[in-house]
Specification:
Length: 255
């Protein structure tokens, strides 16, 4: 963490992260733990999540609470959030990170598949925010960070259910910011570009794709998950106390 900003306002704060066991989510989980926050996360992938918890414990970052949960199951998500609050205290930082960018042809999409893609990429963000609202209101405020994507801004094809769901995150963020603002709860979004998680590198990154990346980005390098974690920390901290109702694009200058 050498060279990183340290946010005193995050020390001891109760944080909940969806999809916090791998990729961008794992970097966010680690970053909050390094700040001394009380961190809980859910994820569907059990093995990497438990490995992350063990590593953070060995590194001296305290106990991080992992719960296996499927964010498509709203009752399970609510129970997971309630348990996190029971262990770590009322949640005052929520990071809605869980998502899957599976490619799909528009010809093959069924109503059931469409609804499932919205459940994993959008719907849970609203219900997680709904669940933490009373805690944040009673605590005098809080910060919610919703993860979107630049895919719809770029006009990418090959995954219409994903891109449309992710575009809706921006609208959800603005609506919740207006509704939650009187309780001093800030709601912001992050729209990452092409971030080089292990999933992206193993499934989607090709020589042709990397060539296009270097051509389109202003920054001529691969963007890393930790860079999204740093922005998340700032938006969660009191250093950004006047900032709400915004979506911040972090894509190296592609769009």
């Amino acid at each position: 963490m050498s060279g990183w900003a340290i946010y005193p306002s995050l020390k001891g704060r109760s944080v909940f992260i969806s999809g916090g066991g791998s990729g961008i989510g794992a970097s966010i989980t680690e970053a909050f733990a390094q700040q001394g926050a009380r961190v809980a996360f859910c994820d569907l992938s059990e093995e990497p999540s438990r490995e992350l918890v063990a590593r953070l414990g060995q590194d001296g970052h305290g106990e991080v609470l992992f719960q296996k949960a499927d964010v498509r199951d709203i009752e399970q998500l609510r129970a997971t959030i309630a348990r996190a609050a029971e262990v770590n205290g009322p949640i005052t930082v929520l990071v809605n990170n869980a998502a899957r960018d599976d490619r799909h042809s528009f010809e093959t999409v069924t109503p059931e598949y469409w609804d499932e893609r919205y459940a994993v990429n959008l719907r849970h963000q609203f219900f997680a925010a709904q669940a933490v609202y009373p805690m944040m209101k009673d605590a005098g405020g809080g910060s919610i960070i919703n993860f979107g994507s630049t895919s719809w801004m770029m006009g990418l094809g090959g995954m219409p259910a994903y891109t449309s769901a992710k575009s809706a995150v921006a609208g959800l963020t603005r609506g919740l910011a207006r509704d939650f603002g009187p309780a001093n709860i800030r709601v912001n979004g992050i729209a990452p570009g092409w971030i080089m998680t292990e999933r992206q590198k193993s499934l989607w990154l090709t020589p042709e794709g990397e060539e296009e990346l270097m051509k389109r980005q202003c920054l001529k390098r691969q963007l890393q998950p930790v860079e999204m974690a740093r922005l998340t920390l700032f938006l969660a901290s009191d250093d950004s106390s006047a900032m709400t109702n915004q979506t911040y694009v972090a894509d190296g200058g592609w769009v």
